[in-house]
Amino acid sequence: MDPFLSIEELAREFDTPNLTDWKLFSQNSSLSCYRRTHQKLIYYKFFHHLPDISPDVLHNVVLDVEYRVVWDKYLKEGRKISDGDKNGIYWLMSMPLFMSNRDYTFVQEQGEYDIGDRHFYYASTHCEEFKNELPRKKIIRIENCQSQTIICTDGAKGSKTVVLYSEDPRGSFPKAAWSWAAKFGIPLYAKLTHNACKTYPQWIKDKNIIVPNVIEDDADSAAAETAAAAAAAASAIISPEDSVVDNDDSHNEQEQDQE
C-alpha cells in the first residue's frame, strides 16, 4: 500500500489541490471526482461540498458503522469485528452490472486537528487480515485498499471534504461499469450521503426513522446541469486501451462466480 499523506498535506488539498496526472472522472454541482491508475491500483480523489451539513455531523456519519448499514444501499453487511487486540470493520459491498460482490476487512483510525485557524476532522482506513473473517465463496475479498478523509468547515454552515481512495479491485471492470459510475453511481452516492447527514440527528434519537432513498433517476436529475459533461469525461477517460482494468487476479471473478 502507498504511504498515507500527512494531515498537513491533506489540508493543503482544500486550497491548492494537486491534480497532476489525475483525470476528471465525474462531476456535479457539489462534487468532483478525479481518477488515475497505476499497475493494479485504481486511485480516486474526491472534493465534496455540503453547504447545509456541519463538519461534525458529516464526520459522525462517516464513522458510524451501524448507521452506514441503514443508509448505504450498496452495503449489504457492515459490522465491527475483532481479532485478539485488533479491532476493525467488515464490509460486504453489492456490486452493479452483474459483477461479483466484494468484501473487506479493515481497520479505521480517526482524529481531530487544528492547523492554522481551521479545525479538521480526519478518518483513515486500510485493509488488514482478520483470521476469524475468512473469505466467502462467490465474493471477492479485497486485500489492498485504503482511504483518507479530511473534513473542515466551508466558512459558513456547511462542510468541505477531501477523500483519497485507492484499491486493487482484483478483477476486470467493463467499460459499461465505468460509464455507469461516472454518470449515475458517484452522483447517486453523493446524494445518499447528503440524505444520510440530514437525517442523522433524528436517527440518533429514533433509530426507526427511514432515511430517504435515492434512485438513479434522482441522481441524474440532481446532476442534470452536468450529466452531459460527466458522460463526456467518462468517455474520454475510458479509452479503448484502458476500457477494462485487469490484473493478475482477473480470473478470480469468473472462478468464484462458478463456485
UniProtKB/TrEMBL annotation:
Pfam short name (any one): START
Keyword Electron transport in record: no
Amino acid composition bias (Basic and acidic residues), ranges on this chain: 248-259
Residue span(s) of domain START: 22-202
Record's keyword annotation contains S-adenosyl-L-methionine: no
Subcellular location: Cytoplasm
Recorded GO CC terms: cytosol
Span list, region Disordered: 240-259
Gene3D superfamilies reported for this sequence: 3.30.530.20
InterPro entries given in the database record: START-like_dom_sf, START_lipid-bd_dom, START_lipid_transfer
Keywords: Acetylation, Cytoplasm, Lipid transport, Lipid-binding, Phosphoprotein, Transport
Matches recorded under PANTHER family: PHOSPHATIDYLCHOLINE TRANSFER PROTEIN
Binding partners and assembly: Interacts with ACOT13/THEM2.
Protein's UniProt name: Phosphatidylcholine transfer protein
Organism: Rotaria magnacalcarata
